[in-house]
């Protein structure tokens, strides 16, 4: 029901520890913004694309990552050409392209569950004032309830469709919010009853 | 913060996630489509209050970051924060906090007009104050140009403020969560 964007595979990139990939991504982001050089962006772009090939990903995966940002990037490109000329425009937009592709590479080669496990493992070393159990509870509750809230939303929309109100956002949102708050209270009572605290 | 608050945070993050599948509604006068998800940001603050609302958005964006396709169009992963509009996403946390804080302050006097003004301050003024300079900084364009580029979205945001204000007032009447300050 709730799928992530992970593409299964057995490449070295799939097997690297999630933390290493995240640190690498952070390093890359900092690098391209600190060093204002076109050759660096070009070189990193080549490295990232080589990563896609290494991970056995198709061109459509890279395209799917870039497509949602395309309009904003086109607007920025136009503004940059007007302000600073085509070379600077290509540099700024190319930098975004590399960042988005690199981030998507991490997302595509890492399971969400691995990252959740990573977060929970990191919480183990967190200082005492961090409410570790609550964070773990909130993450697992949210993952469990996204499909439920989606089906409630679909149900309410159908009910309001019968009344001709399915395009009316408040007629859908008020029942959704109130029903979810009631569910939340019931869940909280169930957790109290099992002495979570 | 007790267990009940944790559950409210988790379930409201789930609402924000579920709203991504709501098809965008295009209003007749303004051409820009309205996505329901950013309504969830205003509702998180206005229904849960400052701390719980902001934490619900932190949880939601955390799940987006680890690669769940919870944004409209099934987007997700680290890339959405590194793109030019990442500032608006992170601004959601602050927007929900500001809306929640103002709602708590005006809780006893809350009506549609007050809720609309609160949503406008948090969901438009504060959000753009974070998102627009972010775009200008990462895309190397002047602040004015970035602001002009964002202006077409303002009419749609005003409609969202009106819808969110109505829902917040209705939710206060039927299932109040915020304690009076």
Describe the structure.
The complex is a heterodimer of chains A (197) and B (181). Chain A has 197 residues and is mostly helical. Chain A folds into two domains: 12-116, no CATH class; 129-193, no CATH class. Chain A contains nine helices and no strands. Chain A has helices at residues 12-15, 18-34, 38-54, 59-66, 70-84, 86-109, 112-124, 132-162, 169-193. In chain A, helix 4 crosses helix 6 and helix 8 (132-162) runs antiparallel to helix 9. Chain A is extended. The two termini of chain A are 30 Å apart. The model of chain A has no long low-confidence stretch (mean pLDDT 85). With 181 residues, chain B is mostly helical. Chain B has one domain (3-174): Arp2/3 complex 21 kDa subunit ARPC3, CATH 1.10.1760. Chain B has eight helices and no strands. Chain B has helices at 3-18, 37-48, 50-65, 79-82, 86-105, 112-138, 143-150, 154-174. The longest helix of chain B is centred in the C-terminal third of the chain and has 27 residues, at 112-138. Chain B is globular and about 45 Å long. Chains A and B meet through helix 2, helix 5, helix 6, helix 7 and helix 8 of A and helix 1, helix 2, helix 3, helix 4 and helix 8 of B.
Name of the CATH architecture of chain B: Orthogonal Bundle
Poorly predicted tracts of residues of chain B:
none
The number of helical elements of chain B comes to 8
> What's the helical proportion of residues of chain B?
55-70%
Share in helix of chain A: over 70%
| Number of separate strands of chain A | 0
Number of domains of chain B: 1
β-strand percent of chain A reads under 5%
Described by the principal axes of the CA atoms, the overall outline of chain B is globular
The number of distinct helices of chain A, counting runs of at least 4 residues, comes to: 9
Radius of gyration of chain A: 22 Å
Which geometry of chain A do the CA atoms define?
extended
Going by helix content, strand content and strand pairing, the class of chain A is: mainly alpha
Portion of residues in beta strands of chain B equals under 5%
Oligomer kind:
heterodimer
Largest sheet of chain B: none
* Average pLDDT number of chain A: 85
Largest interface: A-B, 74 and 64 residues
Unreliably modeled segments of chain A = none
């Amino acid at each position: 029901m709730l799928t992530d964007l992970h593409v299964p595979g057995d490449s070295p990139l799939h097997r690297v520890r999630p933390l290493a990939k995240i640190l690498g991504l952070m390093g890359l982001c900092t690098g391209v913004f600190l060093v204002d050089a076109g050759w660096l962006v070009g070189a990193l772009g080549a490295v990232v694309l080589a990563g896609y090939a290494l991970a056995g990903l198709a061109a459509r995966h890279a395209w799917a990552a870039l497509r949602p940002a395309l309009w904003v990037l086109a607007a920025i490109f136009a503004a940059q050409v007007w302000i600073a000329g085509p070379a600077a425009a290509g540099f700024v937009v190319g930098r975004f392209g590399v960042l988005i592709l690199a981030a998507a590479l991490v997302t595509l080669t890492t399971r969400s569950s691995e990252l959740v496990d990573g977060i929970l493992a990191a919480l183990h070393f967190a200082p005492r004032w961090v409410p570790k159990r609550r964070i773990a509870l909130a993450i697992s509750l949210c993952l469990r309830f996204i499909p439920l809230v989606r089906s409630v939303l679909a149900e309410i929309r159908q009910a309001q469709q019968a009344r001709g109100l399915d395009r009316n956002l408040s007629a859908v949102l008020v029942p959704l919010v109130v029903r979810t708050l009631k569910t939340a209270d019931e869940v909280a009572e169930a957790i109290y009853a099992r002495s979570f605290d | 913060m007790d267990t009940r608050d944790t559950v409210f945070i988790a379930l409201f993050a789930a609402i924000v996630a579920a709203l991504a599948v709501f098809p965008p509604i295009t209003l007749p006068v303004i051409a820009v489509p309205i996505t329901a998800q950013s309504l969830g940001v205003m509702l998180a603050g206005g229904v849960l209050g400052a701390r719980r609302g902001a934490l619900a958005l932190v949880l939601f964006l955390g799940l987006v970051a680890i690669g769940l396709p919870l944004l409209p169009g099934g987007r997700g992963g680290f890339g959405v924060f590194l793109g030019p509009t990442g500032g608006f996403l992170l601004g959601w946390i602050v927007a929900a906090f500001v809306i929640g804080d103002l709602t708590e302050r005006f809780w006893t006097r809350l009506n549609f007009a007050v809720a609309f003004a609160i949503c406008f301050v948090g969901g438009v003024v504060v959000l753009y104050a974070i998102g627009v300079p972010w775009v200008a900084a990462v895309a190397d364009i002047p602040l004015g140009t970035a602001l002009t580029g964002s202006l077409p979205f303002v009419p749609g945001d005003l409609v969202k403020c009106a819808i969110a204000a109505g829902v917040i007032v209705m939710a206060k009447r039927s299932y109040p969560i915020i304690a009076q300050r």
